[in-house]
Amino acid sequence: MITLTLLHPLQPVAVQSWTFNDEPSITIGRATNNEVVLYSAVVSRHHVEIRKSGEEGWEVINLGSNGTYIDGKPVEQTKAIDGMILRLASSGPKILIKLESESNPDQSDLDRQARTKRQPKSAKDTLIS
Predict the structure, then answer these.
(1) Rounded distance between C-alpha atoms, residue 33 and residue 69, angstroms
(2) CB 6 within 8 A of CB 93
(3) Looking at beta carbons, which pairs linking 100-103 to residues 24 or more positions away fall under 8 Å?
(4) How many domains does the chain have?
(5) Domain range for residue 52?
(6) Residue 107, domain member (yes or no)
(7) pLDDT in the model for residue 9
(8) Per-residue model confidence as pLDDT tens digits over 8-48
(9) For position 47, which CATH number holds?
(10) What is the mean pLDDT of residues 70-76?
């Protein structure tokens, strides 16, 4: 299972979260055919893909013209790590990645996820100014 959380631009709080269980690939961008839709001028129509890699691993692939950044450094493709924060474009929205092993979920992650506000799957659009 993977949870993507949009972080507030100025405060370390969650704005919206999306949890995926069985998807082999998750795309993030402005286009409405993405699993996570973010309306921001710096986000490309198809900005980033997070794809399953191996049994329980994930990888992050940049698709956007404005780049994807981790710790201020541009990345084209990298392994996703639990707690990693992606930035879409150098000044765009930040996405926290939480990975959970389906065979042995961490209870503290479950507690934290229970407190995180989640939108129904149909409500996937988020406006970022």
Answers:
(1) 23
(2) yes
(3) 100/1, 100/2, 100/3, 101/56, 102/1, 102/21, 102/56
(4) 1
(5) 2-101
(6) no
(7) 86
(8) 988 878 999 999 998 999 999 999 999 999 999 999 999 99
(9) 2.60.200.20
(10) 96
| Triad 53, 116, 96: Cα angle to 5° | 40
* Cβ atoms < 10 Å from Cβ of 108: 8
Contact by Cβ (8 Å): 90, 70? no
Q: What single DSSP character describes residue 3?
A: E
Is position 29 within any domain? yes
CA dist., res. 111 & res. 47, Å (int): 30
Burial group, residue 70, by CB count within 10 angstroms (0-12, 13-18, 19+): middle
Average pLDDT rounded to a whole number, residues 91-95: 95
Q: Is the pLDDT of residue 49 over 70?
A: yes
Predicted model pTM: 0.78
Output Rg (C-alpha) for the chain, integer angstroms.
Answer: 14
